Write the structure tokens for this entry.
Amino acid sequence: MGKVVFVEDDPQIRKLVRAAMRSSPHEVHFANNGPEGLELVLRVRPDAVFTDVSMPEMDGLELADAIRARAEVASTHIVFITASVQKDQVERYTARGAAAYLAKPFSTAELRDQVHRLVG
């Protein structure tokens, strides 16, 4: 059983993810923003982090940088959740070490597939 952290400031998307992951065998954690997400990542040391790109305080790209800067969690898989999937944006995600991205709106099947691919 793997560990997954979801960092998302939109309560509706958190609700969708929570419902999609309800039957998952994985340990699933949620954070409402980047700083809370970083604290959670450092505490639970997940196999994968799914983070919204556009958030106040600390966006998903800044969160990815903060994760990569910490040796104990630097190898964590990061998946960006975003509505911006133009080629230059996708290149930015890849440059930040993204394992993948999920384009909003995404289906629960797409979400579960990404979790399964990265965590098992």
